[in-house]
Amino acid sequence: MHSLYVVYNALPSMLAGSLVTMGNVALSLTMGLLLGVPMAVAQVYGNAWVRRLVMLYVWFFRGVPILVLLFLCYGLFISMGIAMPPFFICCLVLGCTSTAYQSQIFRGAIESIPRGQLNAARALGMHDSMAIRSIILPQAMRLSIPGWANEFSILLKDSAICFVLGTQDIMARTSFAAARTHEHLALYAAAGVLYFVLTLAVLKLLRRLEQKVHVPGYSSGIGMEGMGMG
User: Fold this and answer.
1) Of 31, 83, 123, 164, which has the maximum CB count within 10 A?
2) How far apart are CA 142 and CA 124, in angstroms?
């Protein structure tokens, strides 16, 4: 009963930390979306040098652990004499990493669109940029929703490591409460449940969005695999 009492007392603080966590994930996902789409287009339709630059970016941010990137980014700002808030550093690192992964999600979706659609647009006198923006991307974005849901769940779990820089997220507040009360098992179990509930809630919303904008003739789905449980 004492463990439940400790969790009950710590829950308001952990819920407040969930707002920080979700803010971090939302900003990182937005950054990955805004940068990932142009990078995907460049990788599919760009020249050889552009494709190589994109692949180099993807290779770096997919190959270096997020913890190392956090410390590198933090050290870079310190060496430059810039006092950057830890929350901003976490958003920047997770956003850059998410950009790499989202660019490949969108690239796969773009490449799944029949090439004949672009050729037909050219035959009608449309420029490639207009055809990509008006015909290819609207379909690709819809097809990317399942992969985007996977990216959300992965990013939410990865954000737990940001507490090492001092962000007041779920893990930081849970760690503080555990150190103060010595109820590590109960508190970290509660944190795990909180992450699970947040993931499940957002995936359900994305599932509804996918059903609403489904492209006829294409099969996709957000199930438990979106939580890494497939």
Assistant:
1) 31
2) 24
